[in-house]
UniProtKB/TrEMBL annotation:
Belongs to the opioid growth factor receptor family. Residues 5-163 form the Opioid growth factor receptor (OGFr) conserved domain. The gene is Ogfr. One of its GO terms (cellular component) is membrane. This is OGFR factor. InterPro entries: OGF_rcpt, OGFr. It holds the Pfam family OGFr_N. Coiled coil: none annotated. GO terms for molecular function: opioid growth factor receptor activity.
Length: 167
């Protein structure tokens, strides 16, 4: 189910699922209907995780009303982290890099600032961050993570000397 909704150009856990080709990705991007379905699938998965897509243009997100219950599920079952990584990679493939940035920042905020998702923190830092295609946006997110990571001296996702000078 998830593999068909969020296909990738790489093999996933389901070895029977064929990786996407570049030609297929281009065909998807040309179809308004396919892209609308993709955004609907993204919204469906976000709701499952307790998140709402506030603005389809920008990718802005917020907690859903049932966030506390859904976050318990995210904290309890780590297989969701693999799914979120897959969704993030697929967002990049399909041209929704701005959605990637908002979703990663959402998880960094919930794990590092609000501390509501302690069991998602490692995945957010080790995997989610590095799915972001834009080097500049990825750097901004690493800096954001560094600013909120405790203890800061244990931050291992970027060189501290460069993070100190980052503008």
């Amino acid at each position: 189910f998830l593999f068909r909704l969020f296909p990738l150009r790489e093999h996933g856990m389901n070895l029977r699922a064929k990786p996407l080709t570049c030609q297929e990705i281009q065909a998807f991007k040309k179809s308004k209907e396919v892209m609308q379905r993709f955004v609907r699938a993204y919204q469906l998965m976000l709701r499952f995780y307790g998140i709402i897509l506030v603005n389809e243009e920008t990718g802005e997100l917020k907690r859903a009303e049932n966030w506390a219950e859904r976050f318990q599920n995210l904290n309890r079952f780590s297989h969701n982290n693999l799914r979120i990584t897959r969704i993030l990679k697929c967002l990049g493939e399909m041209g929704y890099e701005h959605y990637q940035v908002h979703l990663v920042k959402f998880f960094l905020t919930e794990t590092l600032v609000k501390e509501t998702l302690p069991n998602v923190k490692r995945s957010a830092l080790d995997y989610f961050l590095f799915t972001v295609r834009s080097k500049r946006k990825r750097r901004e997110l690493v800096h954001y993570a560094w600013q909120h990571f405790k203890p800061r001296g244990s931050f291992a996702w970027g060189p501290h000397d460069k993070l100190l000078k980052y503008r």
